[in-house]
Design brief:
Elements: E1 4-6, E2 13-21, E3 24-31, H1 36-43, E4 62-65, E5 68-71, E6 84-86, H2 88-91, H3 98-106, H4 115-128, H5 134-140, H6 152-165
Parallel strand pairs: 2-6
Antiparallel strand pairs: 1-2, 2-3, 4-5, 4-6
Helix pairs in contact: 3-6
C-alpha cells in the first residue's frame, strides 16, 4: 500500500516512493504532483535530463522507464512506485556510450540540448535493433526534436555506430 502524507509546509499530498534509479534503490518522499523530471533535476541533481517544452513534445527529457522511452515531464511521482528508471547519466556512467562517441565523431550535435534525449532514445533502439534503417531511426526519434543540427548528422552517427560496433554499416 502506498504511503500518503501531507507536507506541513505546503499542505500538499506527498507520496513515499521506492524505485530503481540507475541501478540503485532510491527512496523519496515527494509531492504526489511532482514530475519525474523535477525529481531527477531538483531532488537528485541529475541534470543530464533536460527540461524544454514541458508538454511531452520535444523529447529533451527522455529517460527509460521500465525499459520504455518516456518523456519524464509527463511522468508523475506516484507512477514511479516500484519502477526502474535509467537516465543519460547511467548510459554513460563509466565512459561514453558508443553512440555518444559516434555523435562526437560525426558532428551530430550543435547546441547539445536535445542530445541526452536523443542518446537515450537511440540506445533503446540499438538495444533491440543493432542494424536499423534510416527510416527506423527517424521513426524511433519521432518524439525527439532537434532545432539546431537536424537529423542528417544523427543518421551519420548511427551509421558510424553500426559500422564500428556491429560491422553492419
Amino acid at each position: 500500500m502506498e504511503s500518503v502524507e501531507y507536507s506541513k509546509k505546503t499542505n500538499e499530498k506527498e507520496v513515499e516512493l521506492t524505485f530503481d534509479l540507475n541501478g540503485e534503490t532510491t527512496k523519496l518522499i515527494v509531492p504526489a504532483v511532482y514530475r519525474l523530471v523535477d525529481i531527477l533535476r531538483k531532488d537528485l541533481q541529475l541534470t543530464g535530463t533536460k527540461i524544454s517544452c514541458e508538454i511531452g513534445r520535444c523529447g529533451a527529457c527522455s529517460v527509460l522507464l521500465t525499459g520504455q522511452v518516456v518523456n519524464s515531464c509527463l511522468v508523475m511521482a506516484y507512477q514511479l512506485k516500484n519502477s526502474k528508471v535509467e537516465t543519460i547519466e547511467y548510459i554513460s556512467k563509466n565512459s561514453l556510450h558508443p553512440i555518444q562517441q559516434a555523435f562526437l565523431e560525426e558532428g551530430a550535435l550543435q547546441c547539445g540540448y536535445c542530445t541526452p534525449g536523443m542518446i537515450v532514445a537511440l540506445t533503446d533502439l540499438l538495444g533491440y535493433n543493432a542494424d536499423p534503417t534510416d527510416e527506423e531511426v527517424l521513426e524511433h526519434l519521432s518524439g525527439n526534436l532537434c532545432r539546431c543540427t537536424g537529423y542528417t548528422g544523427i543518421l551519420r552517427a548511427v551509421r558510424r555506430y553500426k559500422t564500428i560496433y556491429t560491422n553492419k554499416g
